Amino acid sequence: LGARDLPATGWDAVRRARAPGRPRAGAYLDAYFTQRVALLGDRCGGTDPDGMLCGFGEHAGRTVAYAAQTGTATGPAGYRTATRLIRLAERLGIPVLTLVDTPGAANDAAAERQGVGAAIAELFGVMASVRTPVTTLVIGEGGSGGALALAAPGRTWATPDSYFSVIAPELAAAILKRGPEEVEATANQLRLRPQDLAELGVIRTGDQLFPGTGDRRSGEPM
Is 209 within the bounds of a domain? Predict the structure, then answer.
């Protein structure tokens, strides 16, 4: 994509990722798959259908597993369901597509009681060791470890209306004891725009998104 299609500043990238009208996970999945079947539950008694969509879909006659964040804070059951899905896909020899879109993991008391930290850590381990191909597309907010856990090492792309950072700019400003008026400047310093991520080698650019399918639909990653 040309420079005019990319966010001018870090804060511009954050604003675009948070825009209510941008495409969400459901739109990407509907555009890519001709049909799909959901996988629900983390086998620990929990579900997170509002925070993580998991299942299997068909594209061009090929089955692909998917784990897609929906733009909200992902709960522990969502991370455990994604881990369950990826392990199942590995056993079946099915490639996996993950869509990253969350301001961060749920951090309320209920999430802490349900082991959100351990669930994220387990997903990190699975993503680092899984043998089946995993491809990641950052489609919106990529905030903190709650987003990083779903990113495939070496096979992550990003759309122009997304950002990806180890911490949200508001939280980074707070840690640095900066006032609310400095949040925008902090976002610019985090190098979280798609073009910054490409320069840093965090995301890939220019080559084919889904190996073996000849497809670069659903948001045209940079």
Answer: no
Domain count, the chain: 1
Give pLDDT tens digits for 17-26.
Answer: 999 999 999 9
pLDDT tens by residue, 204-216:
886 545 444 444 4
Q: With pLDDT > 90 as the criterion, what percentage of the chain qualifies? A: 79
Instruction: Give Cα 40 distance to the centre of its chain.
Output: 18
CATH code of 43's domain: 3.90.226.10
Reduce the secondary structure of the chain to three states and give it as a string.
Answer: CCHHHCCCCHHHHHHHHCCCCCCCHHHHHHHHCCEEEECCCCCCCCCCCCCEEEEEEEECCEEEEEEEECCCCECHHHHHHHHHHHHHHHHHCCCEEEEEEECCECCCHHHHHCCHHHHHHHHHHHHHHCCCCEEEEEEEEEEHHHHHCCCCCCCEEECCCCCCECCCHHHHHHHCCCCHHHHHHHHHHCCCCHHHHHHHCCCCCCCCCECCCCECCCCCCC
Residue 103 lies in a domain: yes
Task: Give the pLDDT of residue 200.
Answer: 93
Q: Is residue 210 part of a domain?
A: no
pTM, whole model, 2 decimals?
0.89
- Domain extent for 17: 3-200
**156 within a domain of the structure (yes/no):** yes
At residue 49, does pLDDT exceed 90? no
Lookup result for tokens 């609310």: 180
Instruction: Return the pLDDT at 23.
Output: 95
